[in-house]
Amino acid sequence: MTAISYQLYSSRNFGPISKTLELLASNGYKHVEGYGALFTDSQAAAALKADLEKNGLTMPTAHMGLANLEDSPSECVAMAKLLDLKAAFVPHIEADLRPTDLAGWQAFGKRVQAALAPLKDAGLIVGWHNHDFEMQDLGGGTTALDAILEGGPDLQAELDLAWVIKGGKDPIAFLEKYSSRIAAVHIKDIAPQGECADEDGWADVGQGTVEWAPIRDAINKTSNQYVVAEHDNPNDDKRFASRSIATINTLWKA
Hints:
Blueprint: E1 3-6, H1 17-26, E2 31-34, H2 42-54, E3 58-63, H3 66-71, H4 73-82, E4 87-90, H5 102-121, E5 125-129, H6 144-151, E6 156-160, H7 161-166, H8 171-177, E7 182-187, E8 189-190, E9 202-203, H9 212-219, E10 226-229, H10 237-253
Parallel strand pairs: 1-10, 2-3, 3-4, 4-5, 5-6, 6-7, 7-10
Antiparallel strand pairs: 8-9
């Protein structure tokens, strides 16, 4: 059964998290995905847990920063248990810290796996969440994402499908290639060229240029468990939340 979720990063610019959770519950969401700034320590995680329970929501997945995982592994495990996380993904690496060749990305995958090992030992699914820069070719048809997953064989992928497209690659090809290692997917849409400039060119799910039906069919053939709606910079998160869950519900009932 695929769980429909909402990446809370989408609403980071729209007031307190308590109001966001109320909004999502009223739109029929049952699950959300957290990001590191929401639970910087156990006290913040406990407050978030209380807000989730108040609104009948769960947080099965979350993003956790690599530095936090490496610097405070015990606290990360404690927060994951408190929030009852099922999966944790490292979401990013700054441009000036990125490897430049195959060996470097493989070593980076090994590093990410090591950082997530305490969470894996605690029973969580662990993995990497991509942007577009992991789509760069390293030679021989190998991308940086391939190298990360090769270097970290215990890592699952949270495949951000729109970023794959932005990186010039075919998301269906990646879904097929890593069908047994897809733990979650980000459902994000791309506005037509020149539109939604104030939203960094992103669109609400179903309102952009991505052809979702064939991608949905490919997702359904993988090990995926979570479909996560995301918009990196909406100018109206109420509109984004309501439009996106309507589209996703239609896709997964079709």
